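Attaching the record inline, Q. Sequence:
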Amino acid sequence: MGILAGLGSRLPSYGRSIPAWLSRRRRSGKAEGFWRPLAFFLGVVAIYAVTQTHYDYLAQYMFFTHRAQHLVLHHAAPFLIALAAPLPVLAAGVPNQMKGFPGRAIAVRILWPLYRLLQHPVVAPMLFVGLIYFWLIPEVHFDAMLSRQLYQVMNWSMMLDGLLFWWLMLDPRTPEQGGLGYGTRIVVLLAVVPPQIFLGAYLTFSKYELFDVYAVCGRAWPLAPLADQQLGGLITWIPATMMSVLGVLIVIRYLLGENRWQALSLQ
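Structure, as predicted:
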């Protein structure tokens, strides 16, 4: 628990402001429709559910619930938030004091090169898959599950990386508008599939208990260690890789939509 804790005091006023922003944009002819706001709120609620409820406790005492938590933080919730393309609405809600912050230009100049590096089509998939592998190194995983600070770093890094990766893949901008090329997106989405399949299969079919931290702390439910590990492996394997397939379908939808628009404009 902690990813959204720092925003706790601001969430009520922030939540009341969102409908007002959407209403103003609707009156100005920039209606967001129904599905995009729904996807955004589902993504935020999903992050809240796995980090700010009793589920976070279960994620620390069962391997498969931990893998399900990271499936939400790294895949499902960022996917929904990126699909909603909420930046225009979120930018409209930034307080005027922050828009005029004197150090804003300096912060942008410092952070922009880092952002571009993380969004490079070679770096992004390596980081996306690499973080999954890194936090599942048995020694690293052992330390992360026993250290409150490292546990928060692990969850934060998975969520932020997921947001960066899926925003790069599901960016509604066309290549002419600055978005990544559609072919490149499909290649990247397919490139992250085999490493996740391999890792998930390794966890599922391993005959040895790889993560003894759950034996040290005790499991929340009386589930056999290998059965717990196998369930976690299946979660790492099947739904995670299916997210890439879904991402490819959405990118193809973007491409077909752009081609249809270009065809209409030539008529």
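The two ends are 56 Å apart (CA to CA). Residues 142 and 213 are 5 Å apart (CA to CA).

More tomorrow.
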